[in-house]
């Protein structure tokens, strides 16, 4: 049947294709990064790499999959962490987990490759995807990206200060200066033992008011209660004892030295006695950088000293300190502050073609222009000159070379300056000369 001279089936096909939803989409909390966005990521990554170079940190790339026990070791909450917070699966005997963070993998690599034998202190940084099975919301994804750095083999408070300086420098370079750096000390194991008891004694009489998750942590790891984001826990957390009152002399000395170094570096901080890192291998310094421009998920990054981790995973006792920062939150902060991350990618030359011979010419001559460092594109669909010019405009093209049979015969091509809308006829070698530095 025909409706107003148009085939009915073609109308139906159009309607259906307009209605069609993609059959496959990304998982909840996992996103594609398309070219316009990826260009911003590249800009940020360049700033991170440049900062790493200036602090002389070497890059480390570890696999995305690790052995589950590396990540969920000795926390006393193994099943909880693996089943609720991580993507983990078994294949035969092997237990795989998608890494939720970068520190344990770096520590594993340090031990596996005996990096301590290289002498001195190892300074490593990384950029990469991390995975956590959390409830997605703005600033919180299931696949997200972190950059981070670790100094392994130094117990010196200077290493803590340099780690913090690395993190802060990245944000400063990007123009995110309205940040709050919170710091604290979680002490050494002896300080923490006394503090944990104090926490248990404090929370025990109020156990019925704690959230279910905090209840389970009261015996195994009461410091993690202070990390709780559950609303019902907050009033109690506010009144809980602070670790600063339980720090040993050595821990206080370390903390004082870190603060002195930060003062000398001109890095402003807020001492925050309830800032803790719940896991047992964390020692001494803890810090967090947040931004009031981020909304509910306001933490840009955080870190601390973890002098006990490397021994815990089978290495020689090795003091270490590091930080991890979220790339998505960095991007959200830049957006909120109107910070432009590089220029949108422009195209140097679009070769506009009419006819098969011209297309063959374009394919053959593009490499010569590319060798000169130019970005070059052309039509791959045999479209009209008008459509090609439209595409060239859309791609922010600086110059177009227009090629048809007459141009091929004469050996001269229309060379169009797209910005100024001016044209001249030039031979190909003359066009090349235009791009050569004088
Ligand atoms: P953490 O390893 O939990 O100390 O996190 C370090 C930083 O990574 C945080 O301050 C956030 O900026 C970022 N981050 C952590 N979890 C997520 C997530 N699920 N989605 C996006 N960013 C995250």
What does this structure look like?
By secondary structure, the protein is an alpha+beta fold. It folds into two domains: 35-188 and 248-336, Bira Bifunctional Protein, Domain 2 (BirA Bifunctional Protein, domain 2, 2-Layer Sandwich), CATH 3.30.930.10; 349-435, 3-Layer(aba) Sandwich (Rossmann fold), CATH 3.40.50.800. Helix content is 40%, strand content 22%. α2 runs antiparallel to α6 (157-174). The N and C termini lie far apart (67 Å). The model is unreliable at 1-6 (pLDDT under 50). It binds adenosine monophosphate.
What's the short story on this structure?
With 438 residues, the protein is an alpha+beta fold. It is built from 16 helices and 18 strands.
Spans with pLDDT under 50 lasting ≥5 residues? Answer: 1-6
For the record, what CATH class of the largest domain applies? Alpha Beta
Please identify the structural class as seen in this structure. alpha+beta
CATH superfamily of the largest domain: Bira Bifunctional Protein, Domain 2
> Rg, please?
29 Å
Sequence of strands across the biggest β-sheet? 3-7-8-13-12-11-9-10
Query: What is the general shape?
Result: elongated
* Helical content (DSSP H or I, runs of 4+): 25-40%
Can you list the ligands bound to this structure?
adenosine monophosphate
The CATH topology of the largest domain: BirA Bifunctional Protein, domain 2
Total strand segments = 18
- Biggest sheet statistics: 8 strands, mixed
CATH architecture of the largest domain: 2-Layer Sandwich
H/I helix tally: 16
First CA to last CA: what distance? 67 Å
């Amino acid at each position: 049947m025909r409706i107003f001279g148009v085939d009915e089936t073609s109308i139906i096909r159009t309607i259906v294709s307009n209605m069609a939803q993609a059959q496959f989409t990304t998982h909840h909390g996992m996103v594609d990064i398309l070219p316009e966005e990826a260009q911003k990521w590249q800009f940020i990554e360049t700033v991170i790499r440049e900062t790493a170079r200036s602090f002389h940190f070497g890059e480390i790339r570890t696999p995305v999959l690790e052995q589950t026990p590396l990540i969920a070791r000795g926390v006393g909450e193994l099943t909880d962490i693996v089943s609720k917070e991580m993507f983990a699966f078994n294949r035969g005997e092997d237990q795989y987990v998608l890494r939720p963070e970068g520190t344990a993998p770096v520590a594993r690599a340090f031990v596996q490759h005996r990096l301590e034998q290289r002498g001195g202190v190892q300074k490593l940084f990384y950029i990469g995807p991390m995975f956590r099975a959390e409830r997605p919301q703005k600033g919180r994804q299931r696949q997200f990206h972190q950059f981070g750095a670790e100094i392994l083999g130094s117990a010196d408070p200077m290493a803590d200060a340099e780690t913090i300086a690395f993190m802060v420098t990245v944000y400063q370079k990007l123009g995110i200066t309205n940040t709050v750096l919170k710091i604290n000390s979680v002490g050494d194991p002896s300080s923490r033992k006394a503090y944990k008891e104090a926490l248990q004694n404090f929370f025990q009489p109020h156990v019925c008011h704690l959230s279910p998750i905090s209840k389970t942590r009261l015996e195994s790891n009461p410091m993690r209660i202070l990390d709780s984001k559950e609303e019902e826990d907050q009033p109690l957390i506010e009144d809980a004892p602070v670790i600063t009152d339980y720090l040993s002399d050595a821990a206080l000395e370390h903390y004082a030295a870190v603060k002195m170094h930060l003062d000398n570096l001109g890095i402003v901080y807020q001492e925050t006695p309830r800032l803790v890192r719940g896991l047992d291998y964390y020692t001494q310094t803890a810090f967090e950088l947040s931004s009031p421009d981020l909304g509910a998920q306001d933490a840009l990054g955080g870190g601390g000293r973890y002098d006990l981790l490397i021994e815990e995973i089978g290495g020689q006792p090795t003091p270490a300190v590091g930080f991890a920062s979220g790339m998505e939150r960095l991007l959200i902060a830049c957006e909120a502050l109107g910070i432009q991350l590089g220029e949108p990618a422009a195209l140097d030359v679009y070769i506009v073609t009419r006819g098969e011979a011209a297309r063959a010419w374009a394919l053959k001559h593009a490499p010569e222009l590319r060798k000169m460092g130019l970005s070059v594109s052309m039509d791959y669909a045999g479209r009209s000159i008008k459509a090609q010019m439209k595409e060239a405009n859309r791609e922010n093209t600086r110059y177009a070379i227009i090629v048809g049979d007459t141009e091929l015969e004469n050996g001269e091509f229309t060379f169009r300056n797209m910005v100024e809308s001016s044209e001249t006829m030039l031979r190909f070698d003359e066009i090349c000369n235009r791009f050569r530095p004088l």
